[in-house]
Here is the input.
Amino acid sequence: MFISNNACLVPSYFWLTGIPGLESLHIWLSIPFSSMYLVAVVGNVMILVVIKMERSLHQPMYFFLCMLAVIDLVLSTSTMPKLLAIFWFGARNIDRDACLTQMFFIHCFATVESGVFLAMAFDRYVAICDPLRHTLVLTHAVVGRLGLAALLRGVLYIGPLPLMIRLRLPLYRTQIIAHSYCEHMAVVTVACGDTTVNNFYGMGIGFLVLILDSLAITASYVMIFKAVMGLATPEARLKTLGTCSSHICAILIFYIPIAVSSLTHRFGHHVPPHIHILLANFYLLIPPILNPVVYAVRTKQIRERLLHIVKVGSQSK
Here is the structure.
């Protein structure tokens, strides 16, 4: 329902387009998207189960991995069920408050994930540069506080986004959002009135999270590489760097898609809309899919426990 106010309207709900320009292919697109979502859910649940069952994995790095798994489940579940409902049933309408809630969860937990990667970089720094104090510094309580700090930072950073839209931008030119989910800029773009504050706040949060976190992680790895280069033998260097390889892969998997999507959205004005939307969906799906794969392949204990579970399951049939 709309309440008209001159040329602008007050919507009670929005209308998501799905993948604009590819509406005729929605049913076919649902096949890879539903498959990827299933893989993401199964993979991250398996990581949580394996770490809970394997006591040797009750260490800071794996507790952070559990946090990543929960975050990835929240991120993918915040968008994929609605996207699949659009693909399968044409359920494009979304209540305004539900839209703002979805926006909060997507941006908040993306911010939380970046914070967890930063905490993991600190864990690797202490483990390699000051190994004798690792167990003293990264206690279970400290790990929990770092996770809580990442969550609170996400809430404090992102909480104002939907509030500013709710309070400052009640009027809209149209109820149609050319996106598959309620992304901040996609909603602000169709609003009437002055959106300067919303735009600058969104860009500021992007700078704080994407740029500053990545710079802090890079600085920690510069110090780690310096410490590694000081080791006596090439074998020791490779073994030490091997403990960081999974974390480095996960960081690249997270930051590269989100950077490409953000840059394309803000500066790729000549990029077709469906490319924008596909990239935006992939950056919410790729990390949840690949993080469990990376850690399962690169971590011996997780790999062996997974193989044991699969073996027991096949023998019970």
